[in-house]
Amino acid sequence: MSFFGKQNILFLKGFMILFLSCIATRFNFCLSNNPFSLKTLPLEGHLSFDETSLNKASKDFGNRYQYHPMAVMYPKSVSDIATTIKHIWHMGHSSHLTVAARGHGHSLQGQSQTHGGIVIKMESLKVPEMQIHVGNSSPYVDVSGGELWINILHETLKYGLAPRSWTDYLHLTVGGTLSNAGVSGQAFKHGPQISNVQQLEIVTGTGEVVNCSEKQNEELFQSVLGGLGQFGIITRARILLEPAPSMDVERHLSRLNYIRSTLFQTEVTYVEFLDRVHVSEVKLRSKGLWDVPHPWLNLFIPKSKIHSFAQFVFGNILTQTSNGPVLIYPVKKSKWDNRTSVVIPDEDIFYLVAFLTSAVPSSNGTDGLEHILSQNKRILEYCQRENLGVKQYLPHHNTQEEWRDHFGTKWEIFSQRKFVYDPFAILAPGQRIFQKTITTS
């Protein structure tokens, strides 16, 4: 055989080896994104691949975005969550799989969803069991990250205690609200819910289970609070408690400065007051008006800009009857910890202004969604144009450049922490802050 003939054979052999190597790489890539690789995981809970579960996990309260996952996990232990994330992490950039922790699904823009990934149904996580500690120090309760706040309220009231800070809707999970901030009318006194938590247990984006607090793994602790799920999944939290308020109405009124002739009062129990939104939910569900699009807009407005904001928005944009309530809460910056991931205005006093609109079908067959979205866009454009220093609460942005603007001076540390705790961008893809990079070779 001639020299050139041998060269051709060697070339063909090399080409075949390279070709087969590429095929193997492609095969491994496909295998890593195949549900069968997940079915081999040793779990106490289970993964579901049926259409009913997948369809439910592809929707949220906002009812505007639908991203279909590959599977839904119903964990029984923290180990289930850690094992699954570690499995995906070991695949590295060869897998497209991402993980979205889903609490009660009350997100507005698909934040608790993942396209082709795994949705973890956090309400299935019932460990550790709720433990209430009453002693010489401040009382607290240890709860699962998937526990609902309404359940915590019922249990702590048996001891005459209650968490210090709330959200206006209690059928939300602990992990879900702590990943955002947790704000309601009590925030001016005690701060948001993230200012009233002592310890956390986290599963990071590498599948590591980490306990953290202000004294232990402090950077992770501060990162996760208000971190939009980017650094880890909250599996346990220690929540501070206080004595539940009494029904002494006159004592409470005596602290207020008001015109007595304008007083209108209704006496309800503490549970009825805190759970008032759920009563409305039940009524709306009975009329088929709950599962509609909710294009809510929540903003933090600096005190120095609140009058100009209100004058323009309510005088020029929201001139017609609203399709939902508008909440306005004053908040003190001193009650917030600037070390957390939450972004707030740079003033001592700011306001949460929440436009809680619902796109309810009208008599002429239109749902009004586009009109509400147009109003929201005009409000945001006005805030940006006039440089009001406004920040979105429960934020939603379409590009990373917009996210950079949102975080401002916090962006660099936020992105650095992402690289440390979730280097492959496995967690919370529905926030659309970081894009997972896929390689097939």
How would you describe this protein?
34% of the residues lie in helices and 17% in strands. By secondary structure, the chain is α+β, with helices and mostly antiparallel strands. Strands 5, 6, 7, 8, 9 and 10 form a six-stranded antiparallel β-sheet that branches. Strand 5 (131-133) and strand 6 (140-144) form a beta hairpin. The chain starts with a helix and ends in a 20-residue tail after the last helix. The relative contact order is 0.12.
Instruction: Give a count of the beta strands, DSSP E runs of length 2 or more.
Output: 14
Order of helices and strands: HHEHEHEEEEHEHHEEHEHHHEHEEHEHH
Task: Label the overall shape.
Answer: globular
Report the uncertain regions: 9-32
Q: What structural category arises from helix and sheet content? A: alpha+beta
The N- and C-terminal alpha carbons lie at a distance of: 36 Å
Q: For the report, how would you describe the main beta sheet?
A: 6 strands, antiparallel
Helix content: 25-40%
- What is the overall number of helices? 15
Percent of sequence in beta strands: 15-25%
**In angstroms, what is the radius of gyration?**
25 Å
Please give a quick description of this structure:
The chain is of the alpha+beta class and 441 residues long.
Topology of this protein?
Blueprint (H helix, E strand, L loop, with lengths): L2 H30 L2 H5 L6 E3 L2 H7 L13 E4 L3 H14 L7 E4 L15 E4 L9 E3 L6 E5 L4 H8 L4 E3 L10 H5 L8 H4 L6 E8 L4 E5 L4 H7 L7 E12 L5 H5 L16 H5 L1 H11 L10 E6 L3 H12 L8 E7 L16 E7 L13 H17 L5 E3 L6 H8 L3 H11 L20
Parallel strand pairs: 2-4, 3-4
Antiparallel strand pairs: 1-2, 5-6, 6-10, 7-10, 8-9, 8-10, 11-13, 11-14, 12-13
